[in-house]
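hiii, so i know i said id send this last week but things got crazy w the move. better late than never?? heres the sequnce for the chain we talked about at the cafe, plus the structure i predicted for it. fair warning i was half asleep when i ran it
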Amino acid sequence: MSGQELKVADAAKAMTGGEGRERPAWLERVLARPQQFKKFTHDVRVEMGHVTWPSVPEVRSTTFIVIVTIFFFGAFFFVVDGAFGRLIQIILNKFGHSS
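okay and structure toks below
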């Protein structure tokens, strides 16, 4: 056992009352957290090594495509909204109540 594991084991023995008693389940879960976190960070590093990162030209071209698409749909919805707004205004003027 390493020095850190011995300290944790000694602390657990002190909390449970010695060698003969079994530690509570909640204490086992709490004491397992550092190892779980260490495994998690290791797994993240391994998976990040498998990632294929795009090149700068690929990022520029896809960014350009996204910006052009946003402007296209913005203009499209501006025209459609204006047309429907005008149509509704005509309908309301024609069939609306006059006081």
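btw The two ends are 92 Å apart (CA to CA). thought thatd interest u
miss u guys!!
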